[in-house]
Every structure is written in C-alpha cells, then in structure tokens.
C-alpha cells in the first residue's frame, strides 16, 4: 500500500513537467502537490549512487520541485535538501524521458533503455507501449506533445533513428533514420518545430522538411530545451548556454559555476534549470545560477 500511495501522490506534479502546446495551455491544470507530499528520505548523493547516471531534469510548474531521470529510477527534490524516489515500481528502470498527458494526468509514458512503458492509472501499474520499435529499443531521448485530440510521441533509438507514434504509443514507425547520436529533442509549439541536438548538427523539422540550424561560434551541443510558453530555445554548449529568441542567437549573460551539460525550462522565478558536469543541479533566477541540491 505504501508503494502505491507514493506513486499516487505525485501524479498532479507529473502533469506539470512535460510542457504544454497552445491547446494544452488553454486547459485547466490540476494544482501540483507540495514538496512536503514527496517522501524525502534520500540525499542527492544517495540519488547519484542509486541512479548512477543523471540523464535529464525538469521543474514543476509551482517551482518547488526538480525532478531528475536517472539510469535507475525517477527522483524528486522534497525540500530540506532531501529527495524521494517516484514510482517505486520502476526503480530499476533507465529513465531517458517521460511525458504526462495534460488532458488525463493519469496517463503517463516513460522511456529508456528498455523501450516505452505506459500507465493509465497514475503509475500504479505499467504496460509496454513499444509495438514497432526495435527489440530491445535503447531510447536515449524521448518527448511528447498533445495537439488537440492527438498525442504525438518521439523517441530516438540508438543506432536506428527517431521513431514517432501518433496513437498514444500503440504503434511506432520510423520517422528519421540517423547514423549519429541524438543528445536531446524538444518541440516548440509556437513555431511548430521539433528541434534535435544531434552529434554533428542542430536539426529542426518543419512542414515536412528537415533543416540544419547554425549556432554562432559553437562547436558542440550537449543538450537543448524549449520554453513552450515563450518559444525561447536554449542549448547547452562548450561556450555556455545560448538562447534563440525571435530568430536571433545570443549567449546567456549569467555564467554558471561549471559547464552545464543538461538544460530545461524553469518555472516561477526560475528561468532555466540545468545539470553540471559534476551532476549537481542548478537553477537560474535574477541572472544568477545557484545550486539547487
């Protein structure tokens, strides 16, 4: 019972992590649970020890919690410097990405080195949702977006390319074969573009065509993220964080304490959140990066 309660308490917060398209933002959103509702029984060092590798992160819309997907489970900050494990049923699962249906927060998708899993009851039970994907499907990047009545899911499978599902994960089809690694993907609803940080290029898909985007004075892109409310695109590079707004690239003036290799949209007073080379989590507010954990 305790394990199921822990899963159930986090559903409303999960609904706020994935970002929303124009249609999604117009709908009422269930309030997030408070940080006190997350059982905090781990230090961040415990998370690093249990998770081994931190793949990604997101901030809840109330700006109280940061979530990190690891090689072994999904974790949330819980206040007081502590963290908690979310969805204990998936404690041993590699979490490369997740998406929660904004119209039905009890429908959750998670993806990683073992393919795609779907829950329709708020995380109490999980089933495979990877028909059409290679077996095994080593997914290294995963995102979702809702467009009206349709959920679109995108998954990059190492050694294969980007697969897409338009029926909530029931069937997957190859969308773009790629012979290079993909570090991150994100969708910009204001431009109707899918951005892809690949090993050699920054790509985007628009109106059925693929294009290459050039980031000035940048040789390597580690990660990218889209603020789906403002449409601002951020990329983590060897030169620091670069932002694209209204078609123009500019370096982020605030310098992080260390090189950031993962970036994600913030919430409330926080502009962005990121993960450094040391695996520590940082948040940007008032043009200053501070350590979250």
TrEMBL record:
SUPFAM superfamilies: Oligoxyloglucan reducing end-specific cellobiohydrolase (SSF110296). Coiled coil: none annotated. It comes from the Bacteria. Residues 1-18 form the signal peptide. Keywords: Signal. This is PSII-BNR domain-containing protein.
